[in-house]
Amino acid sequence: MFRKRYAYAPLLGFLFVVTSTGFGPRLAAQAVPAEQPDNYTWLEDIHGERSMAWVQTHNDRTTATLDKDPRFAGWQKEALTVLDSPGRIANPGFSAGYIYNKWDDAEHVRGILRRTTLEDYLKPDPKWETVLDYDALSKAEHESWVGHGYDCLDPDQELCLVALSSGGEDASTLREFNMKTGKFVDGGFTLPRAKQRAAWLDRDTVLISRDWGPGTMSEAGYPITVREWKRGTPLESAKEVFRGEVKDNGYGNDPFVLVDGEGHSAAIIRRSLTTFTLEHYILLPGGAKKMGLPNKVEMGGLVKGYLIVSLNEDWKPAGQSSAIPQGAIIAFKLADVEKAPDQLKPEIIFAPSDREFAQDVETTANHLLLTTLDHVQGRAYVYSVDASGHWIRKKLPVPDNQTVGVEATNLKDDRFFLSLTGFTAPSSLWLGDAEKGSLVQVKAQVPQFDASNLVVEQFEASSKDGTKIPYFVVHRKNMPLDGSNPTLLSAYGGFQVAETPSYSPVMGKLWLEKGGVFVDANIRGGGEFGPAWHEAGLKTHRQRIYDDFYAVAQDLVARKITSRQKLGIEGGSNGGLLMGVEFTQHPEMWKAVVIAVPLLDMLGFEHMSAGASWVGEYGSVSVPEERAFLASISPYNQLKPTVNYPEPLIWTTTKDDRVGPVHARKFAARLEEFHKPFYFYEVTEGGHGSGADHKQQAHTSAEVYTYLTRKLMD
Question: Residue 34's pLDDT is what?
């Protein structure tokens, strides 16, 4: 319901063995109870007077306890201090010959877009020039603008479309901005608020997918048509170049344009049929032509005239004797694609092993960058095409036990930035040269919490079907194994999103420093071990994900790292659904449960916000078998008045136009109906997150850790 540049996802050294039942058909018999009447549909009126009065009542009740705790104010201040810390790395982006960075702090609450030269950026204290001030813009226009990034015309990246979101929601207003002048372009491209995407075709043409009126939006609320808009003409006159179907219920039918360092370009339209099934079309002079690709792929970029594609399913191209395995990275000559889009001849660049799986693919002017997970250890490689047309690779010297990410690339040359992060290792930034295969550390985040007494260990638990589930534990060196340690267990388990080590200053300051243990579980549904790890938990197989999480919890107790009276769990979005399921399936196991921006009503999710776009992950109530399964695990529908539940903290945001606040509201309302204790808090802004700025985020974090401390430490 979050992912990389040309892919989507929603809504946080180890050998493991997939058992024979790990990926095979398995669905335990599910008891399907009589469905409870839905008495809380009125809360689906998100901004309605009655709904907002209910929200205010429960916000007041929660703040009267948590915000009045004598520790809350200090912890909120601590959280804001680390979020605003000048010792953070200013994450770079290449554009128009400069290094750009969006920076938020106490002075710039909504942030500024600023720039400097690469030479100056590498200095300890760069001299920044402000290009766009979001706070000043908000004040001038009387709007709560949140910057949602920008998309620029490659390769120069001088003209950009800046995305401005009201309060942090997914819907954005797009405005043309000139990076060199630092000003919005007079009479330039402007797209009113919508869930939309735009891609530069040339300086005077953009491809746009948005709401064009009746029949142009899917049932999931995403655009299904793409139009070509010429500079200086009315938006309404934009020419349609592609149309899908209203039943295209993925993440929308969207355009993007790939450019490489040699001047090759490809305009692509991605037709999103369902959550994970896609069709790809290339725009040619004769119109949009469908490419002969399987339906589960992701576009990775364009380099040296080769189109790069990631496979998420096995594929046997016509004329080949064997299938290319899912998880492989493949390439096509763009010239061949343009001649015969339906007759593709792939070249394999990377094939997964039983231990190493691809993660991110990016391009420089002349090379391909690939990051992988090798037993959940980050790796990075540079791939090049030699004189004979063969792909060769160099391994980059990244340290172990850290997550590796491509922070920025540059189509003007072969320089790039990698980010490295770990649970106790402050994030660092490395400047690389893909041509030389070099990598040098240039920045390091100032430590935001004391990790001198912390260690990270990796264990594995056996799930119900025997599959080994790895997990990380961050704890003090002298941790007693007597079950007394307050422990917070987290996971995501969906949409092929990998949970890898990362530096969290707020969690470190408000939890680890105060003696808490943190556990991150690599359960199925994620992408830690390739597409098959994700597919093992799709739709009616989803109980495996919940069994995996429970198995890790049991293993923590068995190892005496913690006990049921000291064990809390936390997750958001799809991870919020995970928390809701664990809350209802194993209420006796948890002392604290944090359910954040969640899905919880799995019989109604398809008609809430963008819910219809996730049928590929969860299934649909329109399919009898899938409906029966969804009813059996749906937290909202599985609540019972006779069960003793732990007292949860449920939080969401009014401005969340992805999952929406309705799930959280209705779940809390039913708990209230059954006279069960709970805390509920709804942030007014922030979109699908904890707040629209650092102040709001610090408030949410302080409430969460006050709650966890009261439950697990006091």
Answer: 58
